[in-house]
Write a structure and sequence with these properties.
heterodimer; A: 304 residues; mainly alpha; ABC transporter involved in vitamin B12 uptake, BtuC; two-stranded antiparallel sheet; 2 strands; 69% helix; B: 359 residues; two-stranded antiparallel ribbon; 15 helices; 70% helix
Amino acid sequence: MDFSSINPILLLASLMVAATPIILAAAGELIVERAGVLNLGVEGMMITGAITGFIATVTTGSPWIGFVAAAAGGAGLSLLFAFLTQFLLSNQVATGLALTLFGLGLSALLGQGYNGIKAPEFPRIDIPVISDIPVLGPILFSHDPMVYVGIGLIAGTWYFLKYSRAGLILRAVGENHEAAHALGYHVIRIRIMAIAFGGACAGLGGAYISLVRVPQWTDGMTAGAGWIALAIVVFASWRPWRLLIGAYLFGGVTVLQLNLQAAGIAIPVEYLAMSPYIATILVLVLMSAGRAPGSLGKIFHASR
Amino acid sequence: MLTLEKRPQPSKAWVYAAPILAVVITMIVGGGVFALLGKPPLEAIRTIFYDPIFGDFASYSRPQLLIKAGPLILIAIGLSFGFRAGIWNIGAEGQYIMGALAAAGTGLAFYPMEARWLIFPLMILAGFAGGMVWAAIPAFLRIRFKTNEILVSLMLVYVAEAIQASMALNLMRNPDGHGFPGSRNLSQYPSSANLELVANSGVHWGVMAALTAVIFAYFILARHRFGFDVRLAGQSPRAAGFAGVDAGRLIFVCLLISGALAGAAGMFEVSGPAGRVSIDFNVGYGFTAIIVAFLGRLHPVGILIAGLLMALTYIGGELAQLSLGLPGAAIQLFQGMLLFFLLAVDVMTSYRIRFGKTE
């Protein structure tokens, strides 16, 4: 075992990369849940985004087009969920599960013939001047653009929820859909928009895994990242900045266990591999005191 | 303009019609998907739903039907209690793995002793216990810390898969296996084998257990106090509270039942059809069983039928893979679609469609 092979700067830098797919997907789900909808299909939307983004990137050669395709793929799938839960008033838990099972099958089907191909590289951007700062530079300012998109998304959701009128309406719909309806807001329309946004974000998160983190396509490659994103939303008590903490915590455990594997620690690989999931459970246990949006998961049907 | 109007009571007719309609729609849309993949749609549908039972090679595939349906039904019966009460155990796959590992460990510990009367029953108990312990974790955390049981039970699937890989590579690895991963073959060890009870029927102990579970579940739901509590808690948690139903106890019992049955399914699988603990002997029964439970309307008899139907899609899917080159993922998609359409059609059970303008 050789701990000296673990470079703390590289470790922290890769932590930010490992956390990014979770940040992207969780930010979307946070908006969905603040609108009072529980979409358990994050995993399915992520994996669909992962494959649509991968196909688009391999076909066009441009990761940017890939990310747009991933967002479209995730949002497209989420609209299925929206149609079922908002118009056909189906149970959100069951529909979310169906979305995940469906997405896993769909992605495996779409991904045939893409196994083992390497995605074109998504270049890192060294932000001029500040990326040359020792220690902080390589950790914070020398990443691919999606890392910053993720952080920007968190800042954006925070601002949107806290300071914008639309955010206030969205929260009202999530807290009490009957009251929001009585005030004349279109509960269903707002929720559908939120669900589509959540789907697009999950798609981006999935594509980040298949285009940047791995970067390859394999069936079921999101490996529970969508579920972890859901857990992190609970951990964050539905607040954007806490989401960032949760995702970095998770990213930290993931990266650390990978580094320990590489360093040849005496703990078997399989036990290290389960640590992110156990960490997620622990985090859920410690932080399940948060108050969920009032109408979360409830069916809205305007009665006359 | 179409509007939905809540029915005063759920429609009895639609309760039965919805799953059938869902299957029909899935066949039509699935056929469309197969056509897009360049496969003849009617032939594909026939290969999946007809050939395994009545086709040329039905004598091979018919026993498979029960072998696949057994674990699906067993797990889905367990899940149905929780689902009825609004307790969402979606980690049955993990409980299935842990039951299988506990049972395999018990069997391997006795190897090569010849005492089937002792070892086989012990393995069944170990299977129950393994799944139960794994389900007790989300149950305990939910009751004690209000932790979401959906997420915890699902996270534990990944943990169980890691333990399974470790067992197959280290502790349970076959010492005579020339270093290959995977345990001794339990189905070839007379004391632990889950034998076929009637030759060429596919009926093994697990299928018997599944049928027993169906009957028990039926009586518990229809006649026993616990079944009443489950139904009450599902329909109105507040009313259940006033009626003196202990919510914590209900969560615990529902999760333990589903864990135990999933664990038992794992035991019967690892000692029979799968035969050994390998890195990936689990094939997703725990997740498919969720579809089975819903398709069967959370009713024991419904689950029995739904389990057989879902087993059919597995076997028919394999057949279509061989004869038509239909990709395996298409079947997975097909199964997912089935749940989707069921949930969509189900709107008709509690609502009726009104034509005309909303005022």
